[in-house]
């Protein structure tokens, strides 16, 4: 799979998507500030959500959590989160200027059409839209990769969505996700990532809402293809996802770890080669056979006369059996190492 200029999977580093969601509060300027912070933190992509209130909601939709009072209804909230097509185009251009891939979850067919006009390189399907064939079909008509979050899906639901995408000629990626905000660590479900890879053989990811770095680090260390995390300037900020997000300092830690994990996996070590390279250091840190007291010429070496001391430039400790019972041919001081030429043949 390829997203923009980024190859996904097949030994590549994890593709990290930083999710802004509605944290921009309907402000294009704040949205751009998020883009800047995400770029500075080292992620590969920024993801927004494209909501068109009239296309996805009604005034009967209840608030999911208590809101600020600025919006009389949930519909009004979605409307306030909207950007115009020109504003979206401006945000896409700004994102590209910062070297990031632009992605956005579409929550209606109209949103798919808006984003397709902006030439997004891939589609993200939110957990609540996995069951919406009209959106899946609109996305797959474009032939682009489809990234599917599975936070509310059973195994059968996942299989149905995966197969629909494949049958329509697109590449799917499946994200393990638990739709709780925040997600407790014992509900993250890292085991599902391997299950998805084994069953479907496609790119797999984690969409994490734990507000900690631990799931991301653990999943990347196991060879994750894609990672999505919500981000916020501070978890004390207002917003429905703030408490389920990483700060930008935490995101930077995750991206640095991603680079480190790639370096670790790309450089297997040959222990024999390293041992040879460290021969001088081995002599410095290891020990050799040495006397526990001054030994006179003619004495026979016994276990009681020997110990081990640094450096490792004399007779190695594992050669002690070749030394015991032999006679020394000269005086050996307590502060010297025992050497082969100190012994009679």
Summed up:
The protein folds into two domains: 12-266, Alpha-Beta Barrel (TIM Barrel), CATH 3.20.20.70; 272-342, Alpha-Beta Complex (Type Iii Antifreeze Protein Isoform Hplc 12), CATH 3.90.1210.10. The chain is 35% helix and 17% strand.
Polypeptide structure, described:
The structure is a single chain. With 345 residues, the chain is of the alpha/beta class. The protein folds into 2 domains: 12-266, TIM Barrel (Alpha-Beta Barrel), CATH 3.20.20.70; 272-342, Type Iii Antifreeze Protein Isoform Hplc 12 (Alpha-Beta Complex), CATH 3.90.1210.10. Helices cover 35% and strands 17% of the residues. The protein has 12 helices and 13 strands. The protein has helices spanning 28-41, 53-56, 74-81, 85-97, 109-117, 133-140, 155-167, 190-200, 214-221, 248-266, 271-277, 279-285; strands at 2-3, 6-7, 15-21, 45-50, 101-106, 123-125, 146-149, 172-177, 203-208, 226-232, 246-247, 288-291, 306-309. The strands form 3 sheets. Strands 3, 4, 5, 6, 7, 8, 9, 10 and 11 form a 9-stranded parallel beta sheet that branches. It has a two-stranded antiparallel ribbon with strand order 1-2. Strands 12-13 form a two-stranded antiparallel ribbon. Strand 6 (123-125), helix 6 (133-140) and strand 7 (146-149) form a beta-alpha-beta unit. Helix 1 (28-41) runs parallel beside helix 4 (85-97), helix 1 (28-41) runs parallel beside helix 10 (248-266) and helix 9 (214-221) packs parallel to helix 10. The longest helix is centred in the last third of the chain and has 19 residues, at 248-266. 38% of the residues are buried.
């Amino acid at each position: 799979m390829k997203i923009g200029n980024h190859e996904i999977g097949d030994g590549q580093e994890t593709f990290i998507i930083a999710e802004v969601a509605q944290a921009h509060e309907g402000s294009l300027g704040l949205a751009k500030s998020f883009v800047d912070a995400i770029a500075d933190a080292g992620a590969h992509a920024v993801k927004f959500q494209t909501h068109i209130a009239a296309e996805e909601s009604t005034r009967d939709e209840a608030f999911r959590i208590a809101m600020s009072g600025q919006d009389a209804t949930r519909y009004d909230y979605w409307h306030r989160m909207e950007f115009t097509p020109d504003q979206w185009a401006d945000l896409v251009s700004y994102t590209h200027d910062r070297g990031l891939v632009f992605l956005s979850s579409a929550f209606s067919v109209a949103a798919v059409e808006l984003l397709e006009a902006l030439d997004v390189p891939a589609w993200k399907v939110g957990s609540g839209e996995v069951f919406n064939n009209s959106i899946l079909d609109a996305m797959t008509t474009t032939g682009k990769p489809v990234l599917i979050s599975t936070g509310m899906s059973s195994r059968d639901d996942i299989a149905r969505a995966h197969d629909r995408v494949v049958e329509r000629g697109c590449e799917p990626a499946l994200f393990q996700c638990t739709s709780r905000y925040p997600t407790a660590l014992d509900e993250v479900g890292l085991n599902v990532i391997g299950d998805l890879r084994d069953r479907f053989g496609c790119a797999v990811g984690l969409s994490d809402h734990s507000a900690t770095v631990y799931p991301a680090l653990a999943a990347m260390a196991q060879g994750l293809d894609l990672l999505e995390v919500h981000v916020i300037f501070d978890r004390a900020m207002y917003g429905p996802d703030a408490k389920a997000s990483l700060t930008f300092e935490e995101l930077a830690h995750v991206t640095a770890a991603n680079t480190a994990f790639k370096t670790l996996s790309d450089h297997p070590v040959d222990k024999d080669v390293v041992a040879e390279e460290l021969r001088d250091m081995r002599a410095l840190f290891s020990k050799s056979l040495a006397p526990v007291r001054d030994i006179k010429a003619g004495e026979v070496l016994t276990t009681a006369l020997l110990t081990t001391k640094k450096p490792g430039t004399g007779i190695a400790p594992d050669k002690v059996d070749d030394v015991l019972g032999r006679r020394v041919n000269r005086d050996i001081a307590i502060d010297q190492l025992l050497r082969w030429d100190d012994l009679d043949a």
